[in-house]
Design goal:
- The protein has a single domain (4-147), classed as CBS-domain (Roll), CATH 3.10.580.10.
- It contains six helices and five strands.
- It is globular and about 50 Å long.
- By secondary structure, the protein is an alpha+beta fold.
- The longest helix is centred in the last third of the chain and has 15 residues, at 118-132.
Amino acid sequence: MKTVADILLTKPKPYNVIAPDALVIDALHMLKDTNLSYVIVMAGSEFCGIFSERDYSRNVALKGRSSANCLVRDAMTDDMPFAALADSVEKCIYLILDFKTRYLPVVDDGAFEGVITMHDILRIILSNKELVFDNDLAERMLESEGKIY
């Protein structure tokens, strides 16, 4: 069965990192420059959360805040489930579905290792569906892709 460690081996080391005291406008520029939908919020080597396009729309734009003076820490998501390197892809799918999230930070022995995204999971499903888990779970994940918030 595929694990989180297997997924991280196929991904580059995280380079989309920003400090919690950075301005949201800087995070938005980083999103554009990296062509990703999220940035990892770190204070030194400590994982703090994730700032995503969704965080911007919900916690900045819709609240009438300015991205030019709002700090990332005030708009990021920090209450999300975590995955460990030994966790199965199937466990990640259940976490994504149960918590309605798109990103799973990976922490192993207290050290931040990376982020597993819903798209990472879908790539594995599409390329190794028969090796990952049963067809019912694969179909549930594919059907709910547009419904995860």
